[in-house]
Amino acid sequence: MAYCRLCLTLVLWSEKWPCIEAYRLLFIFAANFNVGPPASSIHDDSMKKRIIIAARDNWENYFARLFPVALDSGDAQVLGVSHRGISLLKMVKASGINPKHLRLLKGYSFAEVLSLELQGASRVELELKTENLVLRSSRAPQISAMIRLFLQELIKGSGHVVALKSFMTDDRSLLSFSKGDVIRLLPMDGLQGGWLFGTVGGRSGLFPEELTQPSAAPDYHYLHLDRRDDKRKSMRSNTRNAPPASPSQHPVALRQMSPESEPSRSNSVQGFLQRSGPSSIQGSVHELGVTSPMAEFAMKYFRTGASGLPASGRTLIQHTDIPIQESLILFDDPEMNELSVQCFLNLMMFMGDVPLKKNTSTADCLSHILLLGKEKELLRDEIFCQVIKQNTNNPTQSSFTLGWRLLVLITGFFPCSGTLHPYITQHFDDITQDFEHPFKDLAAVCQDNLSRSVRFGGRRNIPSHVEMDALLAGKTSRRITIMFPGNVEFPAKIRSFTITLDVIKDLCNEMGVSQLEEMREFYILAKRLQDGLVRPLHPEEYLFDFLLEDGSITLSFRRILWGTPLSFQNELFLDFHYQQLLEDYLSGQLKLGPSNGGASLVREVAELAALQHLARGATEPPTLSEVKEYLPSQDGLSSKLEEICSSCHVHVSAMESLSPQDAKIRLIEGLSSLPLFGSTSFLVQKVNQRGCPSPCIVSVNQQGVSFRHPKSQEQVFHIPLAKVESMRTIRPKKQGKAPVAEISYGDPARPKTVTLPFKQAKEFCHTLALIMEMTQSTA
């Protein structure tokens, strides 16, 4: 049942909101699980369970119970309660396409909850380790009951307690802690009543039981993970974060247990390091001689480093020939621990540190690691740490090389968390500045790949078998063909993590376009040869996610927006625009305006035919068959062919001094004056809007969606771009029927809808979505 609900949600998302996020979610299922969204396509219960778990682990709000709330301060509108913890959310609009979605403002682990109190029927107060939350809601009793239910289940057998008050002492046998610290209980024989033995922040010792209460186990990711929205914003302004600061010392003088003595808290990495002092056994990080940022990360977050046992950061993050028996990072979830052990074994087999299992190939091991990172967002930091560990002081050259190739791949396929990011960034930076390091160049590639995956989300599916073989051989690039207007093949070189915008920039540079504002008016379109489906690609999508090895997807390059004035200084630029506008003119997408009695239409068509003829470099008047080739697909012209041909000869004679380049410019200028210039137009047989003819020309541009009469081209209805609320495609109910594009517009509270049944419904919605995003981002 849960699987059916999940599939239905994905289909609705992808149809209603044709954006990069919706398709990224959908392709995780279609590509990574080798299935389609319909529930009937899978009969294996274990596969269904795997898909549900992947959704649970990656989409924090999907399985959450949502409640309307209001806070005394802040703009949170919704409270989410799930297995992951408590979330403060806000309803926002996505860029360009305008479907509403929930943005995470702040998240809390259940381990941070100290107390919960229901105050009347509309108020809940939560005491957390760093702050108090007062939630006003008409569903306050339900909020209280839901949080209590999760707490009761998570506390059972968790082996952790939370400090209700601070306790500071200089007695080395006792454990000092601050209010809100989550302490992991450790077994100890001969404990006296009222005392417990545990560890927190690398320190261990006895402490009074009365100062604590049972707690949910801390969650590494929820406590310290910078959420994706904040992380992407910071990456735009800071491509490289500073390394985390060294831990400071805790005071050792005995202090009274009082709320006033509680230290200030921070959710940042640096704040976490500052408030976690050295244990009485370990000493400080600097005393151990730890200089590597990854060694410092290991001391704070690895299982051994955080357990209170003696350990060196350097030993935690260096190559081993022995498979691990537990995860490197301290996870309390047994499933995460088991998956970490399996991942490390596949890593060792991939690098050649242990023999391959029977019927297992190197590509199988690589696929397992990449798929695990795509399915399990919470396990990504563990994968990064495992690979870096096996690449540190690796004595075998072949293993060392494969390890770095793998690191290049995983940094491009999925991002790390905000907790690990500053450490791993500094790790790569240190290597790129080490001129004796054999893989300093690959470290720079890893830096670039990681910044891309943090900003763009990483590749959305794992490599095909052909790409996998190429990657294992060290080949990370390939040459592809981009079709320019006029069926001109243009070669392009792309790499495994090339995004669409990279190729657009390269092609624009070839045409002499250097301004980013104008570059953003060009798009790459993917066409599926099987059914002719066309979709413009988002500038931030990875090209390798669309290219299929059987050649069934072709890519073309077109200009969709025309806001920047044209300049014909570059020959390729001139030919590109000439061919695109000529194609639109001859196919009937750029129609000539209405004429009186047809005389002006003949003159206009004849002049455009003469310019086409001169653009070919011809000097002799065109033949009748040549003139026929120059005519657009427009009613009433074939019967006037001879008249047009005679008029064309006159125009050719009058313009014989024009060079082919000047003729092309004249034709572009002529077509630029047509009513549909600058629009992407579609012929729709029926529109459910009063006053719209059938058929109807529906065009999309930066001003909005226009509905025009197919003959007179008179605009009969218009939806301004700012009034478009959302759009979606609806699949046909019967085979052979066309899909439907549905546009919601007007008042967001009571939107109106227009439905357009036609074959290019998906192309129309994608084009409109990209134009809206481009227009809003420019504004």
UniProtKB/TrEMBL annotation:
Entry GO terms, CC: cytoplasm; cytoskeleton
Molecular function per GO: actin binding
Boundaries of every SH3 domain copy: 156-217
Signal peptide segment: 1-22
Biased composition regions of type Polar residues, renumbered to the chain: 258-283
Predominant location: cytoplasm
PROSITE patterns: FERM_3 (PS50057), MYTH4 (PS51016), SH3 (PS50002)
Keywords linked to the UniProt accession: Actin-binding, Cytoplasm, Repeat, SH3 domain, Signal
Domain MyTH4 per the UniProt entry, residue ranges: 319-472
Residue numbers spanned by region Disordered: 228-285
SUPFAM superfamilies reported in the protein's UniProt record: Second domain of FERM, SH3-domain
SMART domains named among the record's database cross-references: B41 (SM00295), MyTH4 (SM00139), SH3 (SM00326)
InterPro entries cross-referenced by the UniProt entry: Band_41_domain (IPR019749), FERM_2 (IPR035963), FERM_central (IPR019748), FERM_domain (IPR000299), MyTH4_dom (IPR000857), MyTH4_dom_sf (IPR038185), SH3-like_dom_sf (IPR036028), SH3_domain (IPR001452)
Localization per Swiss-Prot or TrEMBL: Cytoplasm
Domain FERM per the UniProt entry, residue ranges: 478-779
Similarity remark: Belongs to the TRAFAC class myosin-kinesin ATPase superfamily. Myosin family.
Protein name per the record: Myosin XVB
Organism: Oryzias latipes (Japanese rice fish)
